[in-house]
Amino acid sequence: MCLPYGGYEAGAAELLSNSFNRYTYRAFIFVPFCPEGGAWGRIPGAASRAPLVYETICALHEPGIDIKRRYVTGVSRGGYGTWEFICNSPGLSAAAVPVCGAGNPKLASKIVNMPTWAFHGANDEMCRSVARGI
């Protein structure tokens, strides 16, 4: 699952779906739509799209989808969503790659065994804006 910053902007999904990677690394890629004013959770003033995404992921019963190999990633607003998904539903994903964004430190004990490769930088305007509002 690649959570976009907004709309369908998900660089990881674009990379994973190029010709070489589609052939080499067979995968189902889920990129939920994030309308303007929407978010994946924990962004003040933004409507959370997380419940709809949870419902969709749980309803996917396509042959070939290994539920033990579901991964989640996102950048900025999608990074917030990545933390949101793994902390609030730790059994939904096998691993996570949040890029920017932040999670709720009070929920960290839920993901101590979750393989996570996290990145963050000071130049993410979304993160600076949210930090000022918290």
Question: Explain this structure to me?
Answer:
- The chain is of the alpha/beta class and about 130 residues long.
- It has a single domain, classed as 3-Layer(aba) Sandwich (Rossmann fold).
- Helix content is about 30%, strand content about 10%.
- The chain contains five helices and five strands, in the order βααββαβαβα.
- The strands form two sheets. Strands 1-4-5 form a three-stranded parallel sheet. A two-stranded parallel ribbon has the order 2-3.
- The longest helix has 12 residues, at about 75-90.
- It is globular.
- The chain starts with a strand and ends with a helix.
Distance between the termini: 27 Å
The radius of gyration computed from the alpha-carbon positions, rounded to a whole number of angstroms, is 14 Å
Structural class designation: alpha/beta
Specify the CATH architecture.
Answer: 3-Layer(aba) Sandwich
Which oligomeric state applies? single chain
CATH topology: Rossmann fold
Q: What is the H level of CATH, i.e. the homologous superfamily?
A: Alpha/Beta hydrolase fold, catalytic domain
H-E string:
EHHEEHEHEH
Strand content: 5-15%
